[in-house]
Amino acid sequence: ESDTASEISFQFSKHKKTPSIGSHSSDMASVSSVSGSVLSVYSGDFGSVDAQGTVEFALDYDEKNREFQVHVSQCKDLAVVDEKKGRSDPYVKTYLLPDKARMGKRKTSVKKRTVNPIYNEVLRYKIEKMVLLIQKLNLSVWHNDPLGRNSFLGEIEIDLASWDWSNRKLNWYPLKPRSLSAVNGADHRGVMNLSIKYVPPGSLGPKNPPSGEVHIWVKDVKDLLQLRPSGVDSFVKCYVLPDTSKKSYQKTRVIKRDTNPVFNHTIVYDGFHTEDLKDACVELTVWDHEKLTNHFLGGIRLGLGTGLSYGISVDWMDSTQEEVAFWQEMMSATNEWIEGLLPLRSL
């Protein structure tokens, strides 16, 4: 079963001034062509290497400048991503949790062909000490891939409320497998690992692409609900709202008996104008497949969460703060893969 990339064309029309309730959504987008094709650059299991090695860093808070500083020194004995070439191109990324907003994300430079990278870089956050103390620092190491197929190499999470701020020395910390602590809760349904990218019309050359494109790469899902002893047979559905005619409908293949399914399925929607990103919403839902009926496991909605679409009040424009931040980052960083780990929720 090869990984697939689906291409959907959309033509977003301007909203009628007085649409009838329940009918305004179906004429928002029409599919002019659908093609499912094998795209070799997306095949393979990315991000499946086991976390190993250590990272050396130090934390400090500059009271005078009201600045939180993360001094990233180096890493040792990282996992090798490309075993044939024996290489990894690692970089370090930090987030302030629980809000993975763009303002909370920092990255070091990428070091090529090494599992022992030396950075000596300081990642800075302008933030009040009181606000900082109610957050956690998530520091993770990734292998950088020019096609956006970044692989997770390990992480460490620090509760800043209990951090010893008199300790300003560089210390070594073991890198751990991906943590779900940031999204665990009463309604925990698992987390989706995905990347998205917006390519504006004409940004790659004259009339290339002819219209804007939204790329959605569903990588994997972790910690799904297990509804029966044999496990879960899951797949992901994707819609671009406000389309309700099911013309935007795409789905991945079914992964059987696995609560941590790897999909590596990419969907490309074209026909997007930049202004459409303010009114559209990408809905991704995970389902357990059975012969008679499919059971909903959880989902996410990527959009601005304004409650409005083309001036009309809609209940599906309800993105969480984290989902909104993810969508906004895609809008502001065009032609760049934006990676995220988003909690599934009831919709």
TrEMBL record:
SUPFAM superfamilies reported in the protein's UniProt record:
C2 domain (Calcium/lipid-binding domain, CaLB) (SSF49562)
Annotated region Disordered: the residues are: 1-27
- One Gene Ontology molecular-function label: neurexin family protein binding
Instruction: Print the keywords alphabetically.
Output: Cell membrane, Exocytosis, Membrane, Repeat
Name any GO cellular component annotation. Answer: exocytic vesicle
Q: Enumerate the transmembrane spans.
A: none
Q: Spell out the protein name for this chain.
A: Synaptotagmin-like protein 2
Q: What is the lineage of its organism?
A: Eukaryota, Metazoa, Chordata, Craniata, Vertebrata
